[in-house]
Design a protein that fits this description.
Radius of gyration: 13 Å
Distance between the termini: 37 Å
Helix content: under 10%
Length: 121
C-alpha cells in the first residue's frame, strides 16, 4: 500500500495550488482521507478530511473558505485545492487514509510521503 501526495511548489502570497493524493494497492473509495501538514519546527496538524463517499468534509478553522477538499473515486484520487495562500501555510503536506469515518485527529492507518508547499511573501 502506498499513498503519494503531489502538487506542491513555490507560490506567492494569495496564489493557489492543488494538491493530489493518489493510492496504489488501496481502493480509496473505501477510506476516509485526511490532509495534514507539518511546518518546520512545528508539530503535524490536520488541515482537512473527507469521508469515503465525499459526502462530508471537515476543515481546520484557519483554512476554511480558502481550502477545498474533494475526491474522484473513479480515479482513486483525493485533492486539496488551496486558494489565497498565506506564508503560514508553508509546510510539508501529507495525505492519509483510514477505514471508517475520518477526523481531524491523526488516527489514520496509511500515510503518504509529503509534498512541500512554500508560500513566499
Amino acid at each position: 500500500v502506498q499513498l503519494q501526495a503531489s502538487g506542491g511548489g513555490l507560490v506567492q502570497v494569495g496564489g493557489s495550488l492543488r494538491l493530489s493524493c493518489t493510492a496504489s494497492g488501496l481502493r480509496l473509495d473505501q477510506y476516509g482521507v485526511g490532509w495534514f501538514r507539518q511546518a518546520p519546527g512545528k508539530e503535524r496538524e490536520a488541515v482537512s478530511c473527507i469521508t469515503n463517499t465525499g459526502g462530508s468534509q471537515y476543515y481546520k478553522d484557519s483554512v476554511k473558505d480558502r481550502f477545498t477538499i474533494s475526491r474522484d473515486n473513479a480515479k482513486n484520487m483525493v485533492y486539496l485545492q488551496m486558494n489565497s495562500l498565506k506564508p503560514e501555510d508553508t509546510a510539508v503536506y501529507f495525505c492519509a487514509a483510514v477505514l471508517g469515518r475520518p477526523s481531524l485527529q491523526p488516527d489514520y492507518t496509511y500515510w503518504g510521503q509529503g509534498t512541500l508547499v512554500t508560500v513566499s511573501s
